[in-house]
Amino acid sequence: AGKFDFAIDRGGTFTDVFARLPDGSERVLKLLSRDPQNYKDAPTEGIRRVLEEETGKFFPREQPVDTSLIGWIRMGTTVATNALLEREGERTALLVTKGFKDLLHIGTQARPKLFDLEMSMPDVLYEEVIEVDERVVLKQEGCQLPRKDPKRTVKGSTGDSLEVWRELDLKSVEKDLKGVLSRGITSLAVLLLHSYTWSAHEKAVGALARRLGFSQVSLSSEVMPMVRAVPRGYTVCADAYLTPKIRQYLKGFTSGFKGGLKDVDVLFMQSDGGLTPMEQFCGSRAVLSGPAGGVVGYAITSYSQTEQKAVIGFDMGGTSTDVSRYAGQYEHVFEATTAGVTLQAPQLDINTVAAGGGSRLFFRSGMFVVGPESAGAHPGPSCYRKGGPLTVTDANLVLGRLMPSFFPRIFGPGEDQPLSLEESLKHFRSLAKDINHFLKCPDSKSVMTVEEVAMGFIRVANEAMCRPIRALTLCLCFHFECINSALGMKSVFIHKYSGVLSAYGLALADVVEEVQEPCSLQYSQASYKELDRRVDELTRRCRDTLGARSFSRSINMEVFLHLRYQGTDCALMVSADGYPGNAQSCRSGDFRSGFTKRYLKEFGFTIPDRAIMVDDIRVRGSGKSGIQSVTAKCYFEGGYLDTSVYLWEELPCSHTIQGPAIIIDKNSTILVEPCCEAQLTEGGDVCVTVGSDPHCALGTELNTVQLSIFSHRFMSIAEQMGRVLQRTSISTNIKERLDFSCAVFGPDGGLVSNAPHIPVHLGAMQETVQYQIRALGDNLKEGDVILSNNPCAGGSHLPDLTVITPVFRRGVSGPVFFVASRGHHADIGGITPGSMPPNSTSLQQEGAVFTSFKLVTGGVFQEEAVTEALMAPAKYPDCSGTRNLHDNLSDLRAQVAANQRGSQLVAELIDGYGLAVVQAYMGYIQSNAELAVRDMLKEFALKRRQQTGRLEVEAEDFMDDGTPIRLRVKINEEEGSAVFDFTGTGTEVWGNCNAPRAITLSALIYCLRCMVGQDIPLNQGCLTPISVVIPPGSILQPSQNAAVVGGNVLTSQRVVDVIFRAFEVCAASQGCMNNISFGNETSGYYETVAGGAGAGPSWHGRSGVHSHMTNTRITDPEILEKRYPVVLEQFSLRSGSGGAGKYSGGEGVIRKLLFREKVVLSVLTERRSTRPYGIMGGKSAASGLNQLHRADGRVLNLGAKTSVALEPGDMFCLYTPGGGGYGEEEEGEDGAKSESKRRRLNKTFPERGSVFEYRMAQEGV
Fold first, then answer.
1. What backbone torsions phi and psi does residue 828 show, to the nearest 5 degrees?
2. Which of 1045, 1117, 1190, 1218 is the most buried (most CB within 10 A)?
């Protein structure tokens, strides 16, 4: 009543202020977030300006602002995000259970970028680690450990029983904590294993640390009590690292007001879209505080309850674009990665794409490329007059879509000049000249003009943004017209406050209180009473907290259960909204129906006979808190058009504007395309209806802009196939570890595009498809689907089953395209469970073999025939048929469904452009990859000739059994071609390290892509300039019945080492995947384990990471101990195992598994006798070691490959190899080996969101 209310979004570049005045009218204001010459704090300055201008009273800048006129303040801020990106948080120490000091460094053990040999990964957030000698383990029914000492048994909050194996020694902890304090570190993060359910040890450490004087103590059991130590550890570190920074910011903010804002209601936006009081605003929940306001803003203003059409929010900034979706309720994720840190906290699913106004423009090997590099705010785009590079903003300026006269004059060194069209044009003319030189245009007609080049980049930028949106949901509606037409959407809604929508959203948001606790109950009749009791308790806590903030009447309560099927990892956070309670459910709702319906929607099937487990209970309570035009010339697809320019505030309601037009207000510019129509709504917002774009017919001759667009389209097809395969598969390997690849091939079987890049699948499927074309010829009919895994037909190893579908077109005799998917099946028979035997000597012992098997004939799935084939290995001595037929059949059906989706998408592309055009561009994309490889070989040859005068390079390395792998490469400098000759390589071996030809080709494509060093389409063009000579009968081209399971996982790594050694690219990485599996009648488990990466000419090797031909994630320690009869005693880096040098190699890891039951352990490893080499004077790394500590005290060396029966109390100790060093160690330089300075993450904008998580998971396989 009669007061000013403020909603403020403090962004990285601008701060937006939305004010509601005492008379009910509204005002918006935009100012720079940092302007130290003029004011200390932007939000305070915004409030001061509004008060001063609206009341007419003078509010001096240097004095605290009088708060008597302020009702409430709501804020969203990027303070936490920026501290995380810039790595400028508080100095922090981590206190962790003994044996796990490097757990957060190793993380999931996967590297973020598959082809980045430097493996630049963000640093951990803590400076020091204290290991605490305490240990709690879950009690297991079948445990047979021969331990004599009596142990204390305790009850966890989940209902699980735990045994305290080692009690906490507070005296030694106190000594360590005092040492940390004496070094000036006052922020502490505490992570003890299994504290999510039993937190007594963490609480005792927390109380001690606070008593000793730590200013911030974050306990993982309080910050986020969820199972999985690694993400919980990252979350607690982020909390300890960021909360002091937020407090510091709040202290500065409140000091700008009289009485420190004591009597003003101040609320902050959290990552989940809810507001929380200022004093409860903490680091782990603040990371998306800024963008969350924008999601709330568009959700409340543009979603219609009556039409119920999903809305896509599109928020394009300088360095990145945020994309999100709202369909009646907020879409939350409970684990997401921001700036390289995985946080376990509820957050809105906001997908950040590295494409914004500041994204840089490049022309590489005949391709238009946009981003992901950004010009940032400084120097900014070239039109900012600070010597910056060409960006998307420059392209818009050159095309007349931005009007310098309507922009503030804040550019140039003196910050007093307008945007510079001349600078942008100068850069574009130079780029157009390069492009035309590359195209060798014969006549002036085909020369590309500056405008055509700029327009080309805009189209490629739009296509780059469409890809994640297609992935976010396969059918969307969307906020941006060019993208709209590319995605086939019909309308765009632009709110009148779209330029300050995050701030406006803050004014509309609810105040939220959330409580959550872990649980281990089965969702069944027997546990409903206990679940209801716990829900009531959490609801009461929520209601009391909100009641204390005077929200007694209008409180809305939502209950969620985190549910999953027993034995799977895919848990869904399920609300009972729309599923009221009944006699067969909890009182709070029918969660079983909610879960099964959502599971069916997400994954395409349910598992009716499987129990449903409750992992967490969560309660969320929310308290509910209001014509003149000029013309300009603007460039579109057809050339320059007269474009009307309108000022938004001068347009009357219901006014309709035909495109092309530009609508401008002080916070934003809207471009209405020629085929569109804009209308002003009653509320003063703009709604744009998208017309159909008169598609200019595309010919078969090369258009470089269309080349980039087709490259995105082909990749998008392979990616969408992958989404379908993951959703419809059932096994852990495909659904959760994502061990699969999907690809599109031309009519000759040549690879066109390949999604989920498991390096060992790269290019290998091409051999399989081409084999089928030769073998089946005219016998391939519409409605047929082929299954193959035979190594002599292009297979890698037998568990990788490839499903191939030919795509036919009416009126064309043979297939016009092929689509295929390859997935790793957990078991297909053979001598050991898991079909990965360490001691096989023939192919038949490794499982079922398919050469050209028709899985589907005339559209009918051949279940009987394929079942018979999968059970066939049982006829060989000591062998069994598949041990998991149900999963095999389900996953094969999923692969058929993924191919079906691929065929549809290929058909749609052909419908849109015509077969001739699509096949022509398929050829152009392959030529583009070929060109990039030729350029790289020419460059290498030139350098080599100057250094040594020779154009031949060679290298050799050895397997552990002494088999040599030898390579000689002859390069033709004129053509940019090369012959890779493996003559001299050792013969086929008695054992399973033989590698089929397809594996060598995959390793070769992987190496070439790493050496090219930029994004190129991975297709058959990569191998066009290369001829490969492999002697028949060698380990790299074995006979038909040779055992090959180790070739895929071990020999492939050695081939990479040899190629990189020849080209002197980097030192050897660990050269092994460390395949470990164990099992008994009740359970089976398989993992591959990280080691050290090789150093290179400008980098130290990364420690504890997967390298080269694999990238699988490792199971979290707490999940491992919960589900399997094992205790993880240690998982840390192996000190001193990396090779020394000017740049030192990465260190391997130590992993110790103590077994609680009888199991059979299988190990399949390499580099146990040979050592990973150093290069250019760098030293070799330590080789690996597999040790067994028997319960009776004996210690055995198991060797590299074996299978052994273990007793309870036996411990397997794995020491993985390090990476080699690079360059001679420089005398007296201690600094050379120290880790390079803490990395800032601003080189390219870090992406985030569920689409990004999915892609990372796919690359992390």
1. -135, 30
2. 1218
Whole-Å CA distances, 416 to 401, 412, 419, 420: 22, 7, 10, 12
CA 1202 – CA 148 distance, rounded (Å): 31
Would you say how long the chain is, in residues?
Answer: 1261
The letter for the amino acid at 891 is: D
Query: pTM, whole model, 2 decimals?
Result: 0.84
> Helices (H), strands (E): how many in the chain?
26, 54
Q: From CA 878, how far away is CA 722, in angstroms rounded?
A: 36
Taking 50 as the threshold, does the pLDDT of residue 626 lie above it? no
Q: Cα separation of 1202 and 1212, whole Å?
A: 13
CB 953 within 8 A of CB 1062: yes
What span, in angstroms and rounded, lies between the C-alpha atoms of 1007 and 1058? 10
Place of tokens 């149900």: 886
Q: Tell me the three state secondary structure of residue 714.
A: helix
For 250, the enclosing helix (H) or strand (E) is helix 229-254
Check: CB of residue 1122 under 8 Å from CB of residue 1211.
Answer: no
Q: What is the DSSP code string of 479-491? A: S-HHHHHHHT--E
- Residue-level pLDDT at 1019: 86
Q: Are 502 and 553 in contact (CB under 8 A)?
A: no
Radius of gyration of the chain (CA): 31
* pLDDT surpassing 90 at residue 993: yes
**In the structure encoding, which two tokens stand for residue 271, read together?**
């990552």
Distance CA 485, CA 466 (A): 10
Q: Which of 280, 362, 258, 317 is nearest to 12 (CA)?
A: 317
Give the strand pairing for 1026-1029 and 977-981.
Answer: parallel
Q: In whole angstroms, what is the distance from residue 377 CA to residue 380 CA? A: 5
- Euclidean distance between CA atoms 189 and 95, whole angstroms: 6
Percent of the chain with pLDDT over 70: 92
CB 544 within 8 A of CB 536: no
Please name every residue paired with 138 in a beta bridge, in sequence order, or none if there are none: 162
Q: How many CA atoms lie within 13 A of 42 on its CB side?
A: 23
* Alpha-carbon gap, residue 978 to 994, rounded angstroms: 25
Q: Are 1261 and 100 in contact (CB under 8 A)?
A: no
Q: Give the bridge partners for 731, in sequence order.
A: none
Phi, psi of 640 (to 5 degrees): -75, 140
Share of the chain above pLDDT 90, in %: 51
Tokens of 894: 């999923």
String of b and e for 504-540 (b: at least 16 CB within 10 Å)? bbbbbbbbbbbbbbbbbbebeeebbeebeebbeebbe
Task: Provide the angle, in degrees to the nearest 10, between the axes of the packed helices 764-776 and 997-1012.
Answer: 140
**Collapsing DSSP states into helix, strand and coil, what is residue 1023?**
helix
Q: Are 535 and 588 a contacting pair, CB within 8 Å?
A: yes
Residues 6+ away with beta carbon under 8 Å from 547? 555
Residue 832's DSSP bridge partners are none
DSSP 3-state of 493: strand
What pLDDT digit, counting tens, does each position of 952-973 carry?
A: 999 999 999 999 999 999 999 9
Strand partners, 514: 620
Using one digit for the tens of pLDDT, what is the confidence trace for 250-294?
Answer: 998 999 999 888 888 899 999 988 889 888 898 888 888 888 888
Instruction: Give the span between the Cα atoms of 504 and 845, in whole angstroms.
Output: 66
A 10 A CB-CB count for 1196 gives 12
Distance of alpha carbon 1158 from alpha carbon 1137, whole angstroms: 32
Alpha carbons 166 and 149: distance in angstroms, whole number: 11
The arithmetic mean of pLDDT across residues 208-222, rounded, is: 97
Name every residue whose Cβ is closer than 8 Å to that of residue 363 and which is 6 or more positions away in sequence. Answer: 369, 431, 434, 435, 438, 704
DSSP 1258: H
805 Cβ contact list (under 8 Å, min separation 6): 784, 785, 786, 818, 819, 820, 896, 899, 900, 902, 903
